[in-house]
Write a structure and sequence with these properties.
heterodimer; A: 5 helices; B: about 65% helix; elongated; protein dimerization activity (chain B); transcription regulation (chain B); BHLH domain-containing protein (chain B)
Protein backbone atom coordinates (compact mmCIF):
# COMPACT_ATOMS: atom_id res chain seq x y z
CA UNK A 1 0.00 0.00 0.00
CA UNK A 2 1.27 3.38 -0.97
CA UNK A 3 0.46 5.02 2.34
CA UNK A 4 2.36 2.47 4.47
CA UNK A 5 5.53 2.76 2.48
CA UNK A 6 5.49 6.54 2.45
CA UNK A 7 4.65 6.85 6.14
CA UNK A 8 7.36 4.41 7.17
CA UNK A 9 9.85 6.40 5.09
CA UNK A 10 8.69 9.60 6.78
CA UNK A 11 9.28 8.02 10.19
CA UNK A 12 12.85 7.13 9.24
CA UNK A 13 13.47 10.58 7.81
CA UNK A 14 12.03 12.21 10.89
CA UNK A 15 14.25 10.17 13.18
CA UNK A 16 17.42 11.11 11.35
CA UNK A 17 16.35 14.66 10.66
CA UNK A 18 18.56 16.38 13.18
CA UNK A 19 21.68 15.28 11.38
CA UNK A 20 20.67 16.16 7.81
CA UNK A 21 20.26 19.49 6.11
CA UNK A 22 16.82 20.79 5.29
CA UNK A 23 17.25 20.52 1.54
CA UNK A 24 18.58 16.98 2.00
CA UNK A 25 15.53 16.14 4.04
CA UNK A 26 13.09 17.51 1.49
CA UNK A 27 14.93 15.61 -1.27
CA UNK A 28 14.57 12.41 0.74
CA UNK A 29 10.87 13.03 1.25
CA UNK A 30 10.41 13.68 -2.45
CA UNK A 31 12.27 10.49 -3.28
CA UNK A 32 10.13 8.58 -0.79
CA UNK A 33 7.03 9.96 -2.50
CA UNK A 34 8.08 8.63 -5.92
CA UNK A 35 9.26 5.37 -4.38
CA UNK A 36 5.93 4.75 -2.72
CA UNK A 37 4.15 5.44 -6.01
CA UNK A 38 6.44 3.02 -7.82
CA UNK A 39 6.05 0.30 -5.18
CA UNK A 40 2.28 0.61 -5.17
CA UNK A 41 2.11 -0.07 -8.91
CA UNK A 42 4.98 -2.55 -8.63
CA UNK A 43 6.08 -4.25 -11.83
CA UNK A 44 2.62 -4.17 -13.36
CA UNK A 45 3.21 -0.91 -15.17
CA UNK A 46 5.94 0.24 -17.53
CA UNK A 47 6.13 3.64 -15.84
CA UNK A 48 6.57 2.10 -12.37
CA UNK A 49 9.21 -0.34 -13.64
CA UNK A 50 11.11 2.58 -15.17
CA UNK A 51 10.78 4.56 -11.94
CA UNK A 52 11.97 1.61 -9.84
CA UNK A 53 15.01 1.22 -12.11
CA UNK A 54 15.83 4.88 -11.69
CA UNK A 55 15.43 4.76 -7.93
CA UNK A 56 17.59 1.66 -7.59
CA UNK A 57 20.33 3.12 -9.70
CA UNK A 58 20.35 6.10 -7.28
CA UNK A 59 20.15 8.41 -10.26
CA UNK A 60 18.70 11.85 -9.64
CA UNK A 61 14.96 11.98 -10.21
CA UNK A 62 14.36 14.81 -12.62
CA UNK A 63 11.43 15.77 -14.78
CA UNK A 64 11.37 18.58 -17.35
CA UNK A 65 9.81 21.67 -15.85
CA UNK A 66 9.25 23.99 -18.74
CA UNK A 67 7.61 23.73 -22.08
CA UNK A 68 10.10 22.77 -24.73
CA UNK A 69 11.52 26.02 -26.04
CA UNK A 70 11.81 24.59 -29.53
CA UNK A 71 8.04 24.25 -29.93
CA UNK A 72 6.74 26.98 -32.21
CA UNK A 73 2.94 27.33 -32.34
CA UNK A 74 2.52 25.46 -35.62
CA UNK A 75 4.58 22.56 -34.45
CA UNK A 76 3.05 22.31 -31.02
CA UNK A 77 0.59 19.53 -31.72
CA UNK A 78 3.30 17.49 -33.38
CA UNK A 79 5.55 17.81 -30.36
CA UNK A 80 3.07 17.09 -27.60
CA UNK A 81 3.49 13.31 -27.70
CA UNK A 82 7.25 13.83 -27.48
CA UNK A 83 6.84 16.27 -24.60
CA UNK A 84 4.63 13.75 -22.83
CA UNK A 85 7.22 11.02 -23.32
CA UNK A 86 9.68 13.07 -21.30
CA UNK A 87 7.24 13.54 -18.45
CA UNK A 88 6.18 9.94 -17.95
CA UNK A 89 8.83 7.53 -16.59
CA UNK A 90 9.78 5.06 -19.31
CA UNK A 91 8.05 7.24 -21.89
CA UNK A 92 10.75 7.29 -24.56
CA UNK A 93 10.47 3.55 -25.18
CA UNK A 94 6.66 3.48 -25.43
CA UNK A 95 4.60 3.46 -28.58
CA UNK A 96 1.57 5.74 -28.81
CA UNK A 97 -1.01 3.34 -27.37
CA UNK A 98 1.23 2.37 -24.50
CA UNK A 99 2.06 6.00 -23.80
CA UNK A 100 -1.61 6.97 -23.50
CA UNK A 101 -2.48 4.01 -21.26
CA UNK A 102 0.53 4.46 -19.04
CA UNK A 103 -0.05 8.20 -18.76
CA UNK A 104 -3.59 7.77 -17.48
CA UNK A 105 -2.38 5.34 -14.82
CA UNK A 106 0.59 7.53 -13.91
CA UNK A 107 -1.70 10.52 -13.40
CA UNK A 108 -4.05 8.52 -11.19
CA UNK A 109 -1.11 7.44 -9.07
CA UNK A 110 0.36 10.94 -8.86
CA UNK A 111 -2.93 12.45 -7.71
CA UNK A 112 -3.28 9.76 -5.04
CA UNK A 113 0.23 10.46 -3.80
CA UNK A 114 -0.41 14.21 -3.69
CA UNK A 115 -3.61 13.66 -1.70
CA UNK A 116 -1.72 11.39 0.70
CA UNK A 117 0.95 14.02 1.28
CA UNK A 118 -1.68 16.68 1.88
CA UNK A 119 -3.40 14.44 4.42
CA UNK A 120 -0.15 13.83 6.27
CA UNK A 121 0.58 17.56 6.27
CA UNK A 122 -2.83 18.40 7.70
CA UNK A 123 -2.40 15.69 10.26
CA UNK A 124 0.99 16.87 11.49
CA UNK A 125 0.11 20.51 11.56
CA UNK A 126 -3.14 20.12 13.46
CA UNK B 1 -12.70 13.50 -32.46
CA UNK B 2 -10.45 14.40 -35.37
CA UNK B 3 -9.10 11.51 -37.37
CA UNK B 4 -5.99 13.49 -38.18
CA UNK B 5 -3.13 12.36 -36.05
CA UNK B 6 -0.24 14.53 -35.01
CA UNK B 7 2.70 13.67 -37.22
CA UNK B 8 4.82 12.70 -34.27
CA UNK B 9 2.71 9.61 -33.51
CA UNK B 10 4.97 6.60 -33.61
CA UNK B 11 3.54 3.43 -35.09
CA UNK B 12 3.48 0.36 -32.90
CA UNK B 13 6.04 -2.25 -33.74
CA UNK B 14 3.47 -5.02 -33.25
CA UNK B 15 0.58 -3.94 -35.45
CA UNK B 16 -0.97 -0.91 -37.00
CA UNK B 17 -2.75 1.20 -34.40
CA UNK B 18 -6.14 2.34 -35.62
CA UNK B 19 -7.41 5.87 -35.24
CA UNK B 20 -10.26 4.42 -33.24
CA UNK B 21 -7.89 2.89 -30.72
CA UNK B 22 -6.05 6.17 -30.35
CA UNK B 23 -9.28 8.13 -30.01
CA UNK B 24 -10.51 5.72 -27.38
CA UNK B 25 -7.32 6.04 -25.36
CA UNK B 26 -7.31 9.82 -25.74
CA UNK B 27 -10.83 10.04 -24.36
CA UNK B 28 -9.83 7.81 -21.43
CA UNK B 29 -6.99 10.22 -20.79
CA UNK B 30 -9.37 13.15 -20.98
CA UNK B 31 -11.39 11.43 -18.26
CA UNK B 32 -8.55 11.57 -15.73
CA UNK B 33 -7.89 15.26 -16.27
CA UNK B 34 -9.59 17.59 -13.80
CA UNK B 35 -12.79 19.24 -15.00
CA UNK B 36 -11.22 22.65 -14.53
CA UNK B 37 -8.77 21.88 -17.31
CA UNK B 38 -10.95 20.13 -19.85
CA UNK B 39 -14.62 19.33 -19.45
CA UNK B 40 -15.24 15.66 -20.01
CA UNK B 41 -18.21 16.42 -22.22
CA UNK B 42 -16.20 18.61 -24.58
CA UNK B 43 -15.03 17.14 -27.82
CA UNK B 44 -11.50 18.42 -28.10
CA UNK B 45 -8.65 17.49 -30.39
CA UNK B 46 -6.14 14.86 -29.37
CA UNK B 47 -3.49 17.55 -29.46
CA UNK B 48 -5.39 19.64 -26.93
CA UNK B 49 -5.82 16.66 -24.60
CA UNK B 50 -2.10 15.93 -24.83
CA UNK B 51 -1.23 19.53 -24.15
CA UNK B 52 -3.45 19.70 -21.08
CA UNK B 53 -2.09 16.35 -19.94
CA UNK B 54 1.46 17.65 -20.10
CA UNK B 55 0.48 20.78 -18.18
CA UNK B 56 -1.32 18.73 -15.57
CA UNK B 57 1.57 16.30 -15.04
CA UNK B 58 3.99 19.20 -14.67
CA UNK B 59 1.74 20.79 -12.06
CA UNK B 60 1.48 17.50 -10.17
CA UNK B 61 5.29 17.14 -10.17
CA UNK B 62 5.51 20.69 -8.79
CA UNK B 63 2.99 19.82 -6.09
CA UNK B 64 5.06 16.81 -5.02
CA UNK B 65 8.13 19.06 -4.81
CA UNK B 66 6.27 21.71 -2.88
CA UNK B 67 4.65 19.28 -0.45
CA UNK B 68 8.02 17.59 0.12
CA UNK B 69 9.54 20.90 1.14
CA UNK B 70 6.67 21.81 3.39
CA UNK B 71 6.67 18.38 5.02
CA UNK B 72 10.39 18.72 5.55
CA UNK B 73 9.95 22.04 7.34
CA UNK B 74 7.09 20.69 9.38
CA UNK B 75 9.06 17.66 10.52
CA UNK B 76 11.94 19.90 11.49
CA UNK B 77 9.83 22.24 13.52
CA UNK B 78 7.52 19.69 15.15
CA UNK B 79 8.48 17.91 18.29
CA UNK B 80 9.31 14.37 17.31
CA UNK B 81 6.81 12.33 19.29
CA UNK B 82 3.85 14.44 18.21
CA UNK B 83 4.99 14.22 14.60
CA UNK B 84 5.20 10.47 14.92
CA UNK B 85 1.75 10.32 16.49
CA UNK B 86 0.36 12.42 13.67
CA UNK B 87 1.97 10.17 11.08
CA UNK B 88 0.37 7.14 12.72
CA UNK B 89 -2.99 8.95 12.78
CA UNK B 90 -2.70 9.48 9.01
CA UNK B 91 -2.35 5.74 8.60
CA UNK B 92 -5.65 5.17 10.31
CA UNK B 93 -7.58 7.63 8.18
Amino acid sequence: MMACHFLRALFRIQQTSTSSSSSGRSRRIRRAAYASMAYSAGTRRAWSRALLRKLRSRARLRFPRRLSRAATPQRRDMDQAQVLRKLVPGGPSMDDCKLLEETADYIRCLTTQVRLMQTVMDSISS
Amino acid sequence: MSSRRPRSWQPSSASRITDEQINDLVSKLQAVLPEARIRRSDRVSAAKVLQETCNYIRSLHREVDDLSERLSELLASTESSSAQAAIIRSLLM
